[in-house]
Amino acid sequence: MRGPLHWETITRADGVAVLQARARNNSWYIVVPKADGSFELRYASQSANTHLISTGDIGDAKRAAETHADRYDTRA
Fold first, then answer.
1. CB of 31 within 8 A of CB of 41?
2. Which of 38, 51, 52, 2 minimizes the C-alpha distance to 22?
3. Residue 71 CA to its chain's centroid (Å)
4. For a disulfide at 52, which of 41, 60, 62, 72, Cβ 3.0-4.6 Å?
């Protein structure tokens, strides 16, 4: 069974703090704050860089990442 994602904060060169979590399949979930106060969840892998959702709640973005990982992060 997959354990929960471990979130870390990184700061971009422009000073924006971004959350990232590495999945078992060497892909990344990235939560980026937007200028309007919302958050964008992105999924990045070797073959894709995809916008998953935009939401006003960072918790919703993290839950969406967990749901996505439950479906697609199947590597043991």
1. yes
2. 2
3. 14
4. 41
Cα(44)–Cα(6) distance, integer angstroms: 16
The pLDDT, as a whole number, for residue 76 is: 54
Condensed to tens digits (0 to 9), the pLDDT of residues 3-41 reads 889 999 999 999 999 999 998 778 999 999 999 999 999
Closest by CA position to 40, among listed 29, 51, 50: 51
Q: What is the DSSP string of the chain?
A: -PPPP--EEEE-TTS-EEEEEE-TTS-EEEEEE-TTS-EEEEEE-SS-EEEEEEES-HHHHHHHHHHHHHHH----
How would you classify residue 37: left for phi > 0, otherwise alpha for psi between -120 and 50, otherwise beta?
left
Contact 21, 65 (CB under 8 A): yes
